[in-house]
């Protein structure tokens, strides 16, 4: 039963993902391309590219897409394929949902305990460092293709930080600027 | 109190506009929740810290934690479904109808403009978090060393988080004990 296999595979992927969507991609690749051979390498690369370009967390996008492709490649109907993408998406979210919900209870019970406070105080700067790293790792030649990219980035930063332009508006403006200048 | 429907709408909006992973979502959540005073700055930094430390997708974790803070378990369920729904539907549309989506000339151009914006979207919350956290000398040591370890030595963030947790438990346990010994 392909749905059960899909569920178990993505449940495990969701459980062992630490550090966000980009660390999930190699896990998905290993499971769906190498272990199960549900889709080939080229299709997977396309799926990753589309997941990065469409809105939404990259882990959700790629799970949804892989779930659809697995079923549709095996000749299933549209509806069955949609069910496949639902299965993969649900399974990938479920483990962290359970873990984080427990964490919420722990946080609410213990947040004033000195040791828990100490751990949070230590984690905060580490997380600030990790998020800063995410910004640095995105500063690649693919994202910054020419001087115009740098201007867009700096203007967006100033607009967000000083002018308090909303993040939704700034993404829309980025798209318009891209259409106009490239 | 925030209604479940309001939570749904906010997180659906956030899910629909998140591009380039969960971290750019920080700015979106802040503008929706902190500016409406539904979350204070300090709670918000706590939520981001827990979301990044727990396993799973950052964007999903942040929905679970924020939903729980606002309306308990029900809030978590609603926020998670809401933030996953728009990406789910968009991907289905692409998978069924627009398989050539990524080769479309206009899409490519728009993304050349969006990508540098996403970098700025990550940069701003870093500064906001620094301002909302009581930074001491050792906080800066942790920031700089975790950045350099991941950037230059390609150390997995998991090990950094584990080291920080273990060290922090020991230090706070020791301080706590000392405090009790004096009294």
Structure keywords:
heterodimer; A: 182 residues; mainly alpha; 2 domains; 8 helices; B: 183 residues; 7 helices; 79% helix
Largest sheet features of chain B:
none
**Stretches of chain B where pLDDT falls below 50 for ≥5 residues?**
none
Q: What's the number of structural domains of chain A?
A: 2
How many discrete domains of chain B? 2
Estimated radius of gyration of chain A: 20 Å
Ends of chain A: how far apart?
A: 48 Å
What string, H for helix and E for strand, traces the elements of chain A in order?
Answer: HHHHHHHH
Query: Biggest β-sheet of chain A: count, sense, barrel?
Result: none
Order of helices and strands of chain B: HHHHHHH
| Spatial shape of chain B | globular
Sequence-ordered SSE layout with sheet pairings:
The complex is a heterodimer of chains A (182) and B (183).
Chain A: H1 2-15, H2 21-35, H3 41-53, H4 58-73, H5 78-110, H6 114-138, H7 147-161, H8 167-181
Helix pairs in contact in A: 1-2, 1-5, 2-4, 3-4, 4-5, 7-8
Chain B: H1 4-17, H2 25-34, H3 41-53, H4 58-96, H5 105-132, H6 137-151, H7 157-182
Helix pairs in contact in B: 1-2, 1-4, 3-4
């Amino acid at each position: 039963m392909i749905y059960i296999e899909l569920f178990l595979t993505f449940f495990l992927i969701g459980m062992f993902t630490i550090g966000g969507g980009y660390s999930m991609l190699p896990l998905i690749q290993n499971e769906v391309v190498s272990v199960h051979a549900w889709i080939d390498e080229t299709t997977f690369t396309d799926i990753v590219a589309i997941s990065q370009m469409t809105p939404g967390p990259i882990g959700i996008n790629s799970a949804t897409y892989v779930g659809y492709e697995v079923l549709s490649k095996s000749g299933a109907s549209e509806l069955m394929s949609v069910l496949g993408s639902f299965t993969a998406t649900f399974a990938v979210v479920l483990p962290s949902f359970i873990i984080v919900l427990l964490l919420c209870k722990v946080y609410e019970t213990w947040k004033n305990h000195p040791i828990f406070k100490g751990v949070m105080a230590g984690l905060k700067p580490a997380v600030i460092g990790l998020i800063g790293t995410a910004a640095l790792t995105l500063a690649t030649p693919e994202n910054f293709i020419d001087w115009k990219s740098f201007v867009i980035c700096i203007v967006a930063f100033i607009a967000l930080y000083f002018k308090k332009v909303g993040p939704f508006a700034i993404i829309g403006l980025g798209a318009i600027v891209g259409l106009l200048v490239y | 109190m925030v209604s479940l429907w309001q939570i749904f709408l906010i997180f659906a909006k956030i899910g629909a506009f998140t591009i380039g992973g969960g971290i750019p979502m920080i700015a979106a959540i802040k503008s929706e929740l902190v500016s409406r005073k539904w979350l204070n700055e300090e709670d918000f930094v706590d939520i981001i810290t827990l979301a990044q430390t727990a396993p799973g997708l950052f964007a999903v974790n942040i929905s679970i934690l924020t939903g729980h803070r606002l309306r308990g378990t029900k809030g978590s369920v609603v926020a998670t479904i809401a933030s996953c729904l728009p990406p789910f539907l968009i991907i289905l549309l692409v998978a069924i109808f627009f398989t050539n989506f990524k080769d479309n000339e206009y899409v490519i151009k728009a993304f050349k403009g969006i990508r540098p914006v996403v970098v700025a979207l990550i940069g701003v919350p870093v500064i906001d978090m620094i301002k909302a956290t009581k930074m001491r000398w050792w906080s800066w040591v942790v920031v700089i060393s975790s950045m350099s370890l991941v950037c230059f030595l390609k150390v997995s963030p998991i090990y950094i988080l584990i080291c920080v947790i273990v060290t922090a438990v020991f230090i706070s346990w020791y301080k706590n004990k000392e405090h009790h010994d004096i009294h």
